[in-house]
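To whoever picks this up:

The nightly regression suite flagged Zinc-ribbon domain-containing protein as changed. Nothing in the input moved, so I suspect the structure step. Input below, exactly as stored in the fixture:
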Amino acid sequence: MGKFCTSCGTALNEGAKFCAKCGANAFQNNESTQVSTGTPEAAKSEQEIPETMNSTKKKPPINRALDDAPQQSPMGAGKFIITYIRQSLTVLKNPKQMLPTALLGLVWLVLALLGSFGINPLPVRILSFLTFAQGGMFGGVFGAVGGILGKVAVAAFLNAAIVPLFQKKAPFSGIGGGIKGFFSGLAVKSLTAVAPLLGGVGASLLLYAFMNSTQSLQNSMVGIIAFIMLLQGIGKQGGFLWGLAFSAANSLSKGRTPSYISVTRCISGMTLGFALGVALSAVRLRWCGWLGVLLLIAALIFVIVSKGKKEVAAA
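Regenerated output under the current build:
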């Protein structure tokens, strides 16, 4: 096969080392041939890189945590809450989305009036249980604040159940995946994995005791709702509690990217903690407060021990 000058395109004789017309080195032709031969593979490799990156992005966060690639850090807890409140206020632009909350508020008002008149038959008690109507009515200021927080959770749960129906979507999607993620998050294989799990259980027990100050079975619906919402959050890798956990972890880690696995394990612990809180209410044991504190202390001890072992191993 004949050779051509890479500079001017003139045909070259077999064995010629230089172009007779422009004087360019004839061996550049071989080099360019090698380059052009390798170019399709290089181009193919470059085309495959975005596909690999896209396939990584398609993985759920708990799978992406297994990769070594750096991930984008979430915002801090304070900024996340402010952003969430701003987004929640957009519901005011759509009256239909406010309808479930308005109806729930009306039910609370009617149940409160019936209770004030001493009207408390079984249907009223059942409706009061399902709607967390007595939340915040006991326990003084502390109980009132916790009850308000619990009622916000109940209203959010009701919106999550009804609003998707207006959008022709299935409510509570991700529960099945959340159950699988919940049990996988409970799997503990090292000391490092124990701390977030115990911390999640302890934090949720304290939060349950805060929202249900009497820790009674009558007001335990808030714990059941939190349990379901956390399962959905684990399955969808999103939601308010999921985002709050990640933003809190980001604040505690001083800007470092929190581990998806650790935060998922913490949320699995919180899910377990709310279930435990409801179970304690069912057997009339008001242990949630001090048990939550003990578990948080235990989680802190495991953090210190695992940190010490890492420092010894690195020395």
